[in-house]
Amino acid sequence: MRDLNIIRSKKGFISDMDGVIYQGSTLIPGVKEFVNWLQKEKKQFLFLTNSSERTPLELRKKLQSMGLDVEESHFYTSALATAHFLKTQAPGCSAYIIGAHGLINALYEVGIPFNDVNPEYVVVGETTGYNYEMIIKATELINKGAKLIGTNGDMTSPSDRGVIPACRALIAPIELATGKQAYFIGKPNPLMMRTGLKKLGVHSEEAVMIGDRMDTDIIGGVESGMETVLVMSGVSNRENIQQFSYQPHYILDRIGDLVPKKAKA
């Protein structure tokens, strides 16, 4: 095990949420102590989530309901990253949106309206309202020339109901029907990672990425030049990480293990 003090001395901390901060609607043990330590040590920190369903305010309320209060400015979602990407790529564009209000709000806030007639983009994120008519409409619009964007490339995500389909699973029927491949914005896309670092105001060498997934969090951190911490409180275990060509710098049972023992006392 490498010296954890190397990680503790970093200026910026970027952490995933599902499987790291909470599981479903339950806060993972040690998270409160971790956040208290970050605040006491005046660290810069950001919760970076591939989920596009909730706004930062809703994420704050979700954590509040679990007994943890974190300001909205500490949250960055794949919906916000998608809105930023489209605003810079195609100012004045419109989109046919399949997603929850976290995505719809993020696009609206940067001036990208909903358009189901002749949009430049079809944008897909997670939503419980997904249906066959949406697949038909998206296919029709893409065949007319709209470009396909996914908020994130996760096939599944954890929930109170177990593992459930995520964005890539929802977008797959549209890709199959049109023969067009989606461009995914969320982790591990370096666009989202670099924006996170910019929001923190720290260089990649001064930051650490903490997550529970090898295929998004850890590779995203590695490719962005950050030290990486994989926690065992989510989808990964010590057996399945061996199949990957890249490895995390540190493996911990949970995020609370980063807090020095004297700070816990």
From TrEMBL:
Cross-referenced InterPro entries: HAD-like_sf, HAD-SF_hydro_IIA, HAD_sf
EC number: 3.1.3.-
Obligatory cofactor(s): Mg(2+)
Binding-site residues for Mg(2+), renumbered to this chain: 16, 18, 212
Protein name: Acid sugar phosphatase
Alphabetized GO MF terms: metal ion binding; phosphatase activity
Similarity remark: Belongs to the HAD-like hydrolase superfamily. NagD family.
Gene Ontology CC annotation, any one: cytoplasm
